């Protein structure tokens, strides 16, 4: 089974489960008239919309590159997360409004025991499906699946809080526990909605993937070759599951065009084999200068002007800058 087919099937599973559970939760609200249950049900409606959007975004992300999308369609998954976060923020606002109305005009919570059992069943299902989606999403490098699975985790947590509220109402006959739970759930999902929006904006604005940058630098440093004098202007971008990497590499200026091509191709192939996802890498070659001699240990260099003194380790601090490491001051 292909990766795209697996993603689509998991997205469809999430959508079907979300539809069934939202119906169960609204039936629980019909039985109990509980604000906490209504909060949980409203949050689950978002699951339906976001699961559908996530399924569509997964389909789009699987499409091949074309002339209008030279880097592929993977970024639509970040749009999916942003859509989900926006809906969560909207639901959070409505939850605060509804809970405030109940606080001002309290009403009896009916049949809390029946609602408790129904919600407990939905929480168990959400935890199970959420675990499957998050695990598969990390394995398949799909931010849409991971986001959808994490939302199901949050939905399950909301449901557990609602269950606790119903249990307290059942044993104490105090409806204030129901209102307090609604406020707490509203605050929690609002904060989570903001975080999802933040992640979406970061992905759409090409925020640096520092973790992946560190992995690339570590691989280059561990397998560093004498001809690779310097690496700088390193950039790593994510397009859904795919990676786009480009950098500048300083090579001996006396290398022939064929030798430069060979070293560049060597670096590109080396990095591409180190990641499980599709990785596109472009390397720009810069010629060395005599200022680099003291940091270059190229053996039998025919044009060396200074003896080798020390190697400059490659780090995040010096590889992402668009300048050759400490050479500008020496030239």
From TrEMBL:
Keywords: Membrane, Transmembrane, Transmembrane helix, Transport. The keyword Ubl conjugation does not apply. Residues 12-205 form the Cation efflux protein transmembrane domain. Pfam families: Cation_efflux, ZT_dimer. InterPro entries: Cation_efflux (IPR002524), Cation_efflux_CTD (IPR027470), Cation_efflux_CTD_sf (IPR036837), Cation_efflux_TM (IPR058533), Cation_efflux_TMD_sf (IPR027469), CDF_Transporter (IPR050291). GO terms for biological process: intracellular zinc ion homeostasis. GO terms for cellular component: plasma membrane. Residues 214-288 form the Cation efflux protein cytoplasmic domain. GO terms for molecular function: cadmium ion transmembrane transporter activity; ferrous iron transmembrane transporter activity; zinc efflux antiporter activity. It is found in: Membrane. Gene3D superfamilies: Cation efflux protein transmembrane domain, Cation efflux protein, cytoplasmic domain. The chain crosses the membrane at residues 12-32, 44-64, 76-96, 116-134, 155-174, 180-197. Belongs to the cation diffusion facilitator (CDF) transporter (TC 2.A.4) family. This is Cation transporter. It comes from Hymenobacter telluris.
């Amino acid at each position: 089974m292909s990766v795209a087919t697996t993603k689509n099937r998991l997205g469809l599973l999430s959508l079907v489960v979300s539809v069934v559970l939202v119906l169960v939760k609204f039936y629980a609200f019909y039985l109990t008239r509980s604000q906490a249950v209504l909060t949980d049900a409203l949050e689950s409606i978002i699951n339906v919309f976001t699961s559908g959007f996530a399924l569509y975004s997964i389909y789009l992300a699987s499409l091949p590159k074309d002339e209008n999308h030279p880097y592929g369609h993977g970024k639509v998954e970040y749009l999916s997360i942003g859509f989900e976060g926006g809906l969560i923020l909207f639901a959070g606002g409505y939850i605060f409004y509804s809970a405030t109305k109940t606080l001002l005009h309290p009403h009896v919570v009916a049949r809390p025991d029946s609602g408790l059992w129904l919600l407990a069943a939905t929480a168990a299902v959400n935890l199970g499906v959420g675990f499957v989606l998050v695990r598969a999403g990390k394995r398949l490098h799909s931010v849409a699946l991971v986001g959808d699975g994490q939302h199901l985790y949050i939905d399950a947590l909301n449901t557990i809080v609602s269950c606790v509220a119903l249990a307290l109402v059942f044993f104490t006959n105090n409806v204030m526990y129901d209102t307090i739970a609604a406020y707490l759930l509203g605050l929690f999902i609002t904060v989570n909605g903001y975080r999802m929006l933040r992640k979406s904006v970061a992905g759409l604005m090409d925020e640096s993937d520092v973790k992946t940058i560190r992995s690339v630098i570590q691989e280059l440093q561990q397998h560093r070759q004498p001809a690779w004098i310097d690496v700088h202007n390193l950039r790593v971008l994510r397009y859904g599951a795919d990676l786009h990497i480009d950098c500048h590499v300083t090579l001996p200026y006396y290398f022939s065009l064929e030798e430069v091509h060979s070293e560049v191709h060597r670096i590109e192939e080396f990095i591409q084999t180190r990641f499980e996802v599709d990785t596109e890498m472009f390397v720009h070659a810069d010629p060395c200068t005599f200022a680099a001699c003291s940091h270059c240990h190229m053996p039998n260099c025919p044009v060396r002007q200074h003896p080798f003194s020390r190697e400059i380790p490659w780090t995040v601090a010096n590889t992402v800058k668009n300048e050759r490491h400490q050479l500008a001051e020496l030239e």
